[in-house]
Amino acid sequence: MLSYEEAIALVLENTSPLPAIEKPLDEACGLVLAETVYARWDMPPADNSAMDGFAFAFANCTTGTTLPVVGQTYAGHPFVQSVPAGTAVRIMTGAPVPAGCDTVVPLEDVAQTENNICLQEHCEIGQHVRHAGEEFQRGESLLPAGTCLRTGEIGLLAAAGFARVRVHPAPRVAILSTGDELVELGEQPGPGQIVNSNLHLLSARLREAGAEVIPLGIALDDEVDLDQRLCAGLQADLLLTSGGVSVGDKDQVQDAFGRHGFKKIFWKVAIKPGKPVLFGKIGSQPVFGLPGNPAASAATCELFTIPALRRLAGHKDPLPPRLKVRLATAVQGGGKRQAFIWGRLHLEKDSYIFTPSNRQGSGQNRSLQGACSLLPLLADSPDLKEGDEVEVLLMRLPDGAVVY
Ligand code: AMP
Ligand code: MG
Prior knowledge:
alpha/beta; binds adenosine monophosphate; binds magnesium ion; single chain; six-stranded mixed beta sheet
């Protein structure tokens, strides 16, 4: 049986970034740039004032120098004439520094009379002037291809005048839940029935990771129904099913995939939870059959589907970040398969502390409650003690984490 490392390598080998599209900048937050962006102009476009004050030529001015004020300039209202040496122009923040001036004195550092100012504080030549091109210059690389656009990048691209950007689109992920026992959320489960909770768990996680989710409903454990509903997912960028991939009498998902031209890449990985996970392709579409047990479904989504999604979305490093943490409690060593333990993290002094979920049962949604990380335990690894340092896979920053 494949190890986690072998299986994730196969997932990444078989997934590539979606073709680039053009998007309005305001719809691009969270998407990944498909090409390097070069500045089309200097920023700032001209020398301008960083303060509300007076602009003048520094020349021989010192504390006590008096300068007549010959005009004023505001942001958006450049001063067109050249300013003679020995005079000053009233200038507000963002206004271009007029020709002839090289220095700005803040309002609070001068004494003003009707038409004159008198410098009250020591000035340095060039002070409070923001120079043309000091932030970026025309032709300069602003952001390399592969950058994930977040607020800071959106602001920078807006300042540089990019109304549209070329990005990898948000992958569309179709999710099909399978099982005769399932009812949709909002319906009252009858005898032997349970709510299709996996759809909601998987959708929430996939959306959080940048997917556009297409729910395909619930397929009965029945060939015809499975085939029909699968068809609706074949146009998506990634197809995901939950349930029906194990060896039970009613586990028919693999056969159903097969009837749609599925090329199997792996079935079963030596992990706990999530052993029956199935991966392959229908044409160029990556297809995952996740196990039905909620914690197994969530773990295999985290371990395999999220990296595939991130690869489709163009992220340079699709694998989950790893963080060194300390154990809040002892943890029993690994068993026959590599184990992944759900847990929560909190900050204590300078270290993150990992508390395993009380209930690790693969059938329980409760094992994921509050969890933001997975602790990998190699097969046959030794028992761990409280306080031991371990490395966890991070799904997201813990609640309350301070990010600078
Ligand atoms: P399966 O993989 O189809 O054998 O399902 C394994 C277990 O997961 C069974 O107890 C199912 O009832 C449960 N299960 C399957 N699909 C879902 C789902 N969409 N939501 C919640 N539980 C599920
Ligand atoms: Mg089932």
